[in-house]
């Protein structure tokens, strides 16, 4: 198993890990920017790459009880958010299998002004 193998995303705007700049998600994969994380504002994504799941736990969030798991950047091991595994409230079911990423943990990179 090669845990350091990194996926590189294609797209005009990519969200990267603010610690190590691993590609995490595409702008097109954002479902909502109106979420609240542990450190302030957070985004809900359809798909996030280069992450590993922590242990499953039940957590009471503002919108009720959910089973979640923290998601960790596989490159630098920092926790960037969590995944909703199960929502107990019917109205929150749409979040199952989706990812919360803390805005404070990511940087946005525009490909046409990428400086490397
Ligand atoms: Zn990272």
Automatic annotation (TrEMBL):
<comment type="similarity">
    <text>Belongs to the yippee family.</text>
</comment>
<dbReference type="GO" id="GO:0046872">
    <property type="term" value="F:metal ion binding"/>
</dbReference>
<feature type="domain" description="Yippee">
    <location>
        <begin position="13"/>
        <end position="110"/>
    </location>
</feature>
<dbReference type="Pfam" id="PF03226">
    <property type="entry name" value="Yippee-Mis18"/>
</dbReference>
<keyword id="KW-0862">Zinc</keyword>
<dbReference type="InterPro" id="IPR034751">
    <property type="entry name" value="Yippee"/>
</dbReference>
<dbReference type="InterPro" id="IPR004910">
    <property type="entry name" value="Yippee/Mis18/Cereblon"/>
</dbReference>
<keyword id="KW-0479">Metal-binding</keyword>
<dbReference type="InterPro" id="IPR039058">
    <property type="entry name" value="Yippee_fam"/>
</dbReference>
<protein>
    <recommendedName>
        <fullName>Protein yippee-like</fullName>
    </recommendedName>
</protein>
């Amino acid at each position: 198993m090669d845990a350091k193998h990194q996926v590189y995303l294609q797209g005009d705007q990519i969200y990267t890990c603010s610690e190590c700049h691993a590609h995490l998600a595409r702008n097109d994969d954002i479902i909502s920017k109106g979420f609240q994380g542990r450190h302030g504002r957070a985004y809900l994504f359809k798909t996030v790459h280069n992450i590993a799941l922590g242990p499953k736990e039940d957590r009471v969030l503002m919108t009720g009880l959910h089973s979640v798991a923290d998601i960790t950047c596989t490159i630098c091991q920092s926790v960037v958010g969590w995944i909703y595994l199960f929502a107990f409230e019917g109205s929150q079911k749409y979040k199952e299998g989706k990812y919360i990423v803390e805005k404070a943990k990511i940087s946005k990179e525009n490909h046409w002004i990428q400086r490397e």
